[in-house]
């Protein structure tokens, strides 16, 4: 495999230094900018250096003692990291995007009330409760509601209403007066329309702050986000460096993305990228959302073959930090022992992000409490159950607790989620959250209202809860193990921003919005240009890029969906023909050992 022509500097260090000098020059000339930092480029380092540059020249950028530079992050983890790396300097206001937006818009209650009445999301609620005069608008738990003394906003309302307020020149001037400089981390993940709203006053003196956007539009993988930002006022600063990966991985990423070529770090190793595909599988491929993919059993067999029989097995078995990335939770669920949960919920978020209150309670409270009792960590047990340490004066008091948890342990080993919930609801030693009790009561009432033989079809939350009760409780334990990252498996979405020594990416179907085979084939020189404009192209390309760029040293791409001839040719161009390997199958559809 040959490296692409690189117009970048000799190495990552020099490329990084050039990007920083351009960034500092933009700040000094009071120009807003966009730092496009591809995976592994050291985006956070550039952000921290920019903040330190402002602190070292505070009188120039923050002439008044009450002015601050705002640094907005996508997560609380990123926020805390930036605070720590800038010594929590009071001149820097670091918060999540939502935290900052609420801080700047919350004082303007009249404007928020007006925005409320123009919001499509509030139409139905306001139709039944139209009187909002005098009610305070608050944002706390992220749940929409109208109460006697207040109105509470959803998480999505905050950026929506901020976009409206930033359209007001006086509001922008007030924000600029407080925050002459605003940095936005992971700009591609900001809500759609927000960046343009913040920049709407540029060109008018003192009407808008200097804004620095740090991110990479190829790493936009979430819905409702803005992605690439194109604005006449922005200076574009490419950062052509990769401090993460070895040469083979960097070369592969450059083939995939030649318009932003990266230079590897000076001490980068050789590394490897290998592609495995299942085009010769003899079985009948799946349909619907899984169209073109081999069976789930064959998929698992291919993954085992790659780990134990393939040419990559040496680095896989010797790796200290391997990771297996999959597109959907269905794939991980089959591997880790919770195959029923993805079929219960319409959205993976309901269980994987613990948005369902029952799943949240079982994962965060019930299961840790069972573990604490088993390990005789009684202080931790009582803390988890939300109760004070009980008075255990007599043997019968201890016996009640022991019998209750012995029963829970036994039932959790062999019973269903419904069995465990019934036990939890029947005891009176500690409280069960109101939301969990209410969900069960609502289901009971809905089932009572059905005619004999009639199926429960609505509402969805109760249909899902009924199905959840039938799932073996052992799947809760398996899901908790995955969520605590005690396994080598992860979805491609969940590892954004992370890095691992060695990575296996299992690439198939499962979601209609992604088709990786078509995306790769669209890179063929003879492919029709409109293929790159298809809705699935950008979704697939970005998630593929995020997945492949996690690897430091070795990367194996395992395709379990059928690849066209064009797709295979493109992959051979990207990694070298000798590194694209067709898995050989026997007549039963099982991968053949290399020795036969």
Structure description:
By secondary structure, the protein is α/β, with parallel strands linked by helices. The chain is 44% helix and 13% strand. The strands form 4 sheets. The protein has a 6-stranded parallel beta sheet with strand order 3-2-7-8-1-9. Helix 17 (357-374) runs antiparallel to helix 18 (378-384). The longest helix has 20 residues, at 395-414.
Which keywords apply here?
six-stranded parallel β-sheet, alpha/beta, 596 residues, disordered N terminus
Summary of the model, kept short:
With 596 residues, this protein is α/β, with parallel strands linked by helices. It has 26 helices and 17 strands.
Shape: globular
As a percent range, the share of strand residues is: 5-15%
Structural Rg: 27 Å
What does the average pLDDT come to?
87
Number of beta-strand segments: 17
Largest sheet: 6 strands, parallel
Category by helix and strand content: alpha/beta
Q: CA-to-CA gap between the ends?
A: 28 Å
Supply the number of helical segments. Answer: 26
Low-confidence stretches are: 1-9
Order of strands side by side in the largest beta sheet? Answer: 3-2-7-8-1-9
User: Which bin fits the share of residues in helices?
Assistant: 40-55%
Blueprint (SSEs and pairs):
Elements: H1 12-28, E1 33-37, H2 43-56, H3 58-61, E2 69-73, H4 76-85, E3 92-96, H5 97-105, H6 109-118, H7 123-128, E4 136-138, E5 145-146, E6 150-152, H8 157-166, H9 169-178, E7 181-185, H10 194-198, E8 210-215, E9 235-239, E10 241-242, H11 247-256, E11 263-264, E12 272-277, H12 296-308, H13 313-318, E13 322-326, H14 329-336, H15 341-344, H16 349-352, H17 357-374, H18 378-384, H19 395-414, H20 417-426, H21 434-448, H22 460-469, H23 474-483, E14 489-491, E15 500-507, H24 516-521, H25 535-548, E16 551-559, H26 565-575, E17 580-582
Parallel strand pairs: 1-8, 1-9, 2-3, 2-7, 4-6, 7-8, 10-11, 12-16, 12-17, 13-14, 13-15, 15-16
Antiparallel strand pairs: 5-6
Helix pairs in contact: 1-2, 5-8, 17-18, 17-23, 19-20, 21-22
């Amino acid at each position: 495999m040959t490296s692409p022509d690189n117009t970048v500097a000799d190495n990552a260090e020099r490329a990084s230094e050039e990007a920083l000098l351009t960034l500092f020059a933009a700040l000094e000339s009071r120009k807003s900018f966009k730092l496009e930092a591809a995976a592994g480029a050291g985006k956070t380092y550039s952000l921290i250096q920019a903040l330190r540059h402002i602190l070292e020249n505070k009188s120039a950028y923050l002439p008044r003692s009450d002015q601050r530079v705002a640094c907005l992050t996508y997560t609380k983890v990123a926020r805390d990291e930036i605070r720590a790396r800038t010594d929590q300097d009071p001149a820097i206001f670091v918060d999540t995007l939502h935290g900052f937006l609420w801080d700047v818009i919350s004082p303007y209650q009249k404007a928020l009330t007006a925005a409320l009445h123009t919001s499509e999301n509030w139409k139905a609620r306001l139709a039944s409760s139209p009187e909002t005069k005098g009610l305070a608008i608050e944002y706390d738990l992220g749940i929409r509601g109208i109460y006697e003394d207040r109105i509470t906003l959803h998480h999505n309302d905050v950026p929506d209403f901020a976009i409206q307020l930033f359209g007001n020149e006086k509001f922008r001037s007030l924000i600029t007066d407080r925050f002459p400089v605003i940095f936005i981390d992971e700009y591609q993940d900001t809500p759609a329309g927000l960046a343009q709203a913040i920049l709407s006053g540029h060109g008018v003196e003192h009407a808008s702050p200097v804004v620095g956007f740090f991110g990479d539009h190829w790493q936009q993988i979430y819905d409702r986000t803005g992605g690439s930002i194109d604005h006449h006022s922005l200076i574009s600063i490419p950062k052509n460096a990769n401090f993460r990966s070895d040469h083979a991985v960097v070369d592969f990423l450059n083939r995939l993305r030649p318009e932003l070529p990266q230079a590897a770090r000076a001490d980068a190793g050789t590394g490897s990228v290998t592609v495995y595909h299942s085009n010769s599988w003899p079985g009948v491929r799946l349909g619907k959302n899984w169209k073109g993919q081999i069976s789930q059993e064959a998929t698992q067999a291919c993954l085992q073959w790659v780990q134990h029989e393939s040419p990559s097995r040496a680095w896989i078995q010797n790796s200290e930090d391997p990771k297996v990335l999959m597109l959907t939770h269905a794939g991980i669920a089959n591997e880790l022992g919770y195959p029923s949960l993805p079929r219960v919920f319409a959205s993976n978020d309901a269980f994987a992000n613990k948005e369902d209150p029952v799943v949240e309670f079982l994962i965060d409270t019930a299961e840790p409490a069972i573990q604490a009792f088993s390990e005789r960590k009684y202080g931790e047990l009582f803390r988890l159950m939300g109760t004070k340490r009980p008075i255990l004066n007599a043997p019968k008091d201890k016996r009640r607790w022991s019998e209750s948890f012995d029963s829970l342990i036994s039932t959790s080993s062999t019973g269903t989620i419904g069995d465990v919930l019934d036990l939890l609801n029947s005891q009176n030693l500690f409280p069960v959250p109101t939301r969990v009790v209410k969900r069960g009561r609502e289901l009971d009432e809905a089932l009572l209202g059905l005619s004999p033989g009639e199926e429960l079809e609505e509402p969805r939350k109760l249909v899902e809860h009924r199905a959840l009760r039938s799932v073996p409780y052992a799947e809760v334990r398996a899901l908790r193990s995955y969520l605590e990252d005690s396994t080598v498996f992860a979805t491609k979405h969940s590892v954004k921003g992370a890095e691992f020594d060695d990575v296996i990416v299992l690439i198939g179907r499962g979601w209609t919005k992604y088709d990786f085979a078509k995306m790769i084939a669209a890179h063929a020189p003879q492919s029709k240009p409109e293929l790159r404009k298809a809705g699935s192209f950008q979704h697939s390309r970005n998630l593929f890029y995020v997945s492949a760029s996690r690897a430091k040293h070795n990367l194996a791409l395992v395709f379990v969906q059928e690849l066209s001839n064009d797709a295979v040719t493109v992959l051979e161009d990207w990694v070298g023909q000798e590194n694209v390997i067709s898995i050989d199958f026997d007549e039963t559809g099982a991968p053949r050992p290399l020795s036969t």
